[in-house]
Amino acid sequence: VLIGLGLFDEKDISLKGLEEAKNSSKVYAEVYTSIWKGSFKKLEKMVGKKISLLERKDLEEEFEKILEEAKEEKIAVFVPGDPLIATTHSSLILEARKRGVGTKIIHSSSIISAIAECGLHIYKFGKILTIPLPEKTKILPQSVYDGIKENLGRGLHTLCLLDVDVESKKFLEVNEALGILMEMENIFNKKVVSLSTKILVLSEIGSDKPKIVYDKIENLLKQEFNLPAVIIIPGELHFTEKEFLNSI
Amino acid sequence: VLIGLGLFDEKDISLKGLEEAKNSSKVYAEVYTSIWKGSFKKLEKMVGKKISLLERKDLEEEFEKILEEAKEEKIAVFVPGDPLIATTHSSLILEARKRGVGTKIIHSSSIISAIAECGLHIYKFGKILTIPLPEKTKILPQSVYDGIKENLGRGLHTLCLLDVDVESKKFLEVNEALGILMEMENIFNKKVVSLSTKILVLSEIGSDKPKIVYDKIENLLKQEFNLPAVIIIPGELHFTEKEFLNSI
Exposed site from A5, B99, B149, B170, fewest CB < 10 Å? Predict the structure, then answer.
């Protein structure tokens, strides 16, 4: 059973998710594919069981062990957000199926739908992109830049996720991501964004103090944003969207 | 406080959502913008309070009343899924802001991210579309058909939601939606789908028995699907996506 922990902390799990964990023989947690701000101590208390953290070094090997155990008993694996947003988790499900191990997904809140909190209509978003960690790419990927351009060409908004490197525990910061965006503009030069383009930063959505800022890139670059965060580049704005953005 | 009820039933609410409802002076529920299969009796028991169902006839007027009350005390409004996916709810938030009433969103699971359960990568979806109820449109909207075509042109998958008419309580069935898709093909005739196109139907995601079928439209037309359901028209498939779809 893959159980989504939801957006922010240990209280974002659903009642169904908690119940499934309680009814499992063993509970694991994988918390590297995205940022989770909850407390494991509290989560263990809620579940009434020890939670084993998976080793980030060799997730594949860890999954192997879990699949073996799951042949005999019910194993729960906690993951941040909605479980299958990280493709790593789809492959765990696929591997389970190949071995005849039954699977179940307990969904939870995810940034993919929670971005609607900024007032942009979810029906007007195009392809989701990820701004890469500079350490991971020698050259900036034009596909990301072109993806934003294609969305804009259709009048669509773009959700940009910030890259995570599971092994090195590196997370791309908002300021770095904005810098990369401007660097891409300089290199690929197709007038997708400029320092005076107004875009959105959504930080700590699902927390008690979500921060949503709609401003020019040059101003956003001067601000501090906590992680987890995402960047949204708006396309054409419906008047209700405009009104909402102006109320932020 | 807008509180998401999540995907399917009363156990899909988060612990945070339940806590917020318990701490509110009054609890309302709006359950018309999408299908919710939970039990209000059970939900009332969980919250320990009476839940007032909003009148479907005049939601605007109901919202007006809530906003007045919210000036004095903490009011919770339950909505299915993740709260701001329905644009009606964004306007409630906007209206609250205009009146200086503080707002809070408690996110929950939504079909927007839960579709990843079919194994298609969420990063490869394009614009979301809604297949309209035939009663609501005299002529079929070409924008929906062209939207699918544009997504396919970029190699992207398309999530098609099924229309709901709040006032008449009408819900588009999967079979009707598939029929409309084929009718659009006949009228607009740009080779987007044919009876032998393999697409996906996801039904009752979040329930104990989610049904996910990947098959040709002609075969899907012969099957029964419970609501809530969505249709997905896949674009180009990554080999891991192919492998996953074949394991269904």
Answer: B99
The whole-number pLDDT of residue B77 equals 97
Q: For chain B, what's the residue count?
A: 248
Render the burial of B61-89: b for 16+ CB within 10 Å, e for the rest: ebbeebbeebeeebbbbbbbbbbbbbbbb
Nearest CA in chain A to B90: A119
CA distance A107 to chain B (A): 6
Query: Which of chain B's residues have a Cβ under 8 Å away from the Cβ of A13?
Result: 14-15
- Residues of A whose CB is below 8 A from B131: none
Give me the helix-helix angle, B59-70 and B87-98, nearest 10°: 40
Main-chain dihedrals φ then ψ at residue B186, nearest 5 degrees:
-65, -40
CA dist., res. A109 & res. B59, Å (int): 26
Three-state DSSP state, A6 = strand
Determine, for residues B121 and A87 on separate chains, whether the beta-carbon distance falls below 8 Å: yes
**Spatial contact of A44 and A51, defined as CB atoms under 8 Å apart:** yes
Within its chain, how far is the Cα of A21 from the centroid?
Answer: 22
The interface predicted TM-score (ipTM) is 0.96
pTM of whole model > 0.90? Answer: yes
Q: What span, in angstroms and rounded, lies between the C-alpha atoms of A151 and B82?
A: 24
Does the structure show a pLDDT above 90 at B166? no
Cα–Cα distance measured from residue B35 to residue B7, given in angstroms and rounded to the nearest whole number: 9
